[in-house]
Amino acid sequence: MTATPFEQLGGDAKLRALVERFYALMDSEPGFRGIRKLHPPTLEGSTDKLYMFLSGWMGGPQLYVQKVGPPMLRARHLPFPIAEAERDQWLACMNRAMQECEVPELLRLQLMGAFQKTADWMRNQPG
Ligand code: HEM
Q: How many Å is the Cα radius of gyration of the chain?
């Protein structure tokens, strides 16, 4: 049987480290200021939610569904204006976090393909 992306990544601790790196970069890099300002002042809650969601999304434990409920991701992003610029910042931030966490190249490219589709679906503003 083929390993899930969650298993290929190295499991729970690696996913947690990836999500923490993602938000640390968002918090510190000027290039991600546009999406940082859409988030709450402290990022612990965002970190927990994205970690729980990605666990299930990558084929691991369905933590988000168990603890929060149906993801309804597009609806949950409607309060935040997301156009191409915000989509591209989110994707660049995730790509960099994966590189810094040394996610294997092929897995990183596969995940980027899937993230691109999900992030594009979240757009709710023209441009
Ligand atoms: C397209 C650009 C995106 C922007 C600008 C964005 C921004 C945000 C913001 C501002 C929040 C609220 C944070 C909070 O409540 O602490 C959020 C929540 C969340 N985002 Fe995104 N996001 C984007 C894409 C994505 C993608 C691609 C995924 C998944 C692959 C994702 C997954 C989540 C999850 C799971 C939550 C928590 C939802 C909840 O329980 O309220 N986001 N996002």
A: 14
- Does the C-beta of 88 come closer than 6 Å to ligand 1? no
Q: How far is the CA of 38 from the centre of ligand 1 (A)?
A: 10
**pLDDT for residue 42:** 98
Taking CA atoms only, the protein residue closest to ligand 1 atom 19 is 50
**Per-residue burial over 83-122, b = 16 or more CB atoms within 10 Å of its CB, e = otherwise:** eeebbebbbebbbbbbeebebeeebbeebeeebeeebeeb
Angle between helices 44-57 and 12-28 (to 10 degrees): 140
pTM of the predicted model over 0.85:
yes
Cα–Cα distance measured from residue 25 to residue 17, given in angstroms and rounded to the nearest whole number: 12
**Backbone φ, ψ for residue 3 (5° rounding):** -70, 145
How far does residue 76's CA lie from ligand 1's centre (Å)? 8
CATH class of 5-121: mainly alpha
